[in-house]
Amino acid sequence: MNAKLEKLSANLQEVLGDKIASLTEYVGEVTIVVKASDWLGVANQLRDHAELGFEQLTDLCGVDYSEYGEGAWQGKRFAAVNHLLSIRNNWRLRVRVFAEDDEFPMLDSVAEVWPIANWNEREAFDLYGIIFSGHPDLRRILSDYGFIGHPFRKDFPLVGNVEMRYDPELRRVVYQPVSMENRVTIPRVIREEGYGA
Fold it and tell me: What domains are defined for the chain?
């Protein structure tokens, strides 16, 4: 670990203490995991504390870990992964926050801490079903308002449940059950290191 990352890690441990569930450094990036109950307070400290100064959220995305890695994933299923930037200190940080309940994933909204989170949280809600408590306008952003389910959950059928078509006799769009057979996906292949070299 280089001196800059060591300083960032030391500052994080000093400021956040036991609120950090884990801290790792991999390929020149620092990642911390924070409990859902501590997330809003930690977000404010990350932004406001002079030793950290993460004034910019560059990305927030939902993740479904149900099929993560080679073995069966043992942790919580849904998380929000946040990428932060400190322009003043010229460093970056990844913060992962796991929702406590896999059936009804809920996290605190950080839209008041970093306003850009508004749209990103709406996207994570729409695609993964993660509810962001305290969000000013949590509604679908990419899929139809009448859509049932969340497209990026790994339990959604590949061809969907309903299809939409224009009916020339009725002169309007109609919804009907899917007329295609459900496809079986080919299992994901994980190739060994150096494959094809």
Answer: 3-142 (3.30.460.80)
